[in-house]
Amino acid sequence: MQNGTNIVTYRRVSTAKQGRSGLGLSDQATKLADYAAYNRATVVKEFTEEESGKVKSSDRKQLRAAIALAKAKRCTLVVAKLDRVGRRAADILSLLDDRKLKVVFADSPTASRLENGVRAVFAEEEGRAISERTKAALAAARARGVKLGNYDGGRALVAYTAKHGNVAGCVGAKKHADEFANDTRDFIEQLVRDGLSDSAIAEALNADGIKSRRGAMQNADGTVKYPDARWHETSVRRLRARLVI
Questions:
Q1: Which part of the chain is CATH 3.40.50.1390?
Q2: Which of 11, 43, 150, 228 is placed for a possible disulfide with 28 were both Cys, Cβ 3.0 to 4.6 Å?
Q3: What is the mean pLDDT of each run of 10 residues along the chain (245 residues)?
Q4: DSSP code of 211?
Q5: How far apart are the C-alpha atoms of 202 and 171, rounded to whole Å?
Q6: CATH number for the 6-111 domain, one of 3.40.50.2300, 3.90.550.10, 3.40.50.620, 3.40.50.1390?
Q7: Residue 43, H or E segment
Q8: 3-state secondary structure at position 197
Q9: What is the pTM for the complete model shown?
């Protein structure tokens, strides 16, 4: 790319919570900033999306807007990473084949169209393989009688704290956290052996409807205390640290 080029940048995270916390966005922002600085490029506009990679690229408002602006201003669209476009090879290949648009991936700016196409196909196949291994691990865990998640842990903790006070409640909280962690040990160990990352494990837990510890907690009246509490890379990392996996 020649110096002085105008660019439109795009970055994406899978959940709104990640977007609010900056989890994942900061790393992408660094890649984009480094790219712009190295090429002395001017950033015309930045686009950020909070959407699952499973959603078609054509259904993502911010990506569509970024593409439209880049075409209108004849800018280069710079995406933080290839997988930020999505998990479907067809979406990435469609973007690469658009003759009215020049797209560059900041994590591999010199890659050719062929190289990026191959990466897209491999990324889709890897995602499919991970999904199949995850489903197999879940089935195996259930067959062994593994209890995936302590759905009543929150109610028990509320009752324990009310009866014994704050000090005892802290002890009770640790006890219930340990019990919850041990309920998931076999399942998590299997996914770790399969080579899944903490982020992939979190996606597997959410996809199968397994509640996080916060998601399983209940108020005294039995209602869910944190209805939107899902697994994330950080919560899986903490769980693995507690289990020493």
A1: 6-111
A2: 11
A3: 79 61 72 94 92 69 92 94 85 90 93 90 78 73 62 50 52 60 74 80 78 65 65 87 80
A4: P
A5: 27
A6: 3.40.50.1390
A7: strand 42-50
A8: coil
A9: 0.53
